[in-house]
């Protein structure tokens, strides 16, 4: 009788410890993921470390990868109920074609901005492309996008189909092959 009771106590302690270990591991994994309920409970704004940009981009865009050549990666993320992600990188012509192909869906709208139009927009001081990300980078005290320094480029806007609506704005700077992508989950 005592042996049986001792075995029951040992099994119960083992099950409790196993449950605590599984809970700890689950919370640790979920907390590191940017689009989970735990992360959304603590809204924050910060610049991402370079090693986290690619996996977060992949998750925010519903499994679209960054191009192989994406130098000088920098990104800002705003977590919370409606997460937002802004990334800047330098690529080659293959990387630009890859981005255009991946984001050119039925809702995509592509516009070209030549040097004259960009100069007029800059002189009028109109924050045309990335008003929201500009506010985010001001809050952080960093600069990922400066419209005044851009001479020409292409603007691609649209949405990705999903259960949650994913809106994107992409600006491709023609002269320097810089790409700026803003993603907003609604």
Number of strands: 7
Q: Give the CA-based shape.
A: elongated
Summing up helix and strand content along with how strands pair, one would put the structural category as alpha+beta
Order of adjacent strands in the largest pleated sheet: 1-2-3-7-6-5-4
Order of helices and strands: HHEHEEHEHHEEE
Gyration radius, rounded = 22 Å
Round the mean pLDDT to the nearest integer and report it.
81
Q: Total domains, how many?
A: 2
User: What percentage of residues falls in helices of 4 or more residues?
Assistant: 40-55%
How much β-strand is present in the residues? Answer: 25-35%
Give unreliable regions as ranges: 34-41
Query: What is the terminal separation in angstroms?
Result: 61 Å
Describe the largest sheet. Answer: 7 strands, antiparallel
Number of helices: 6
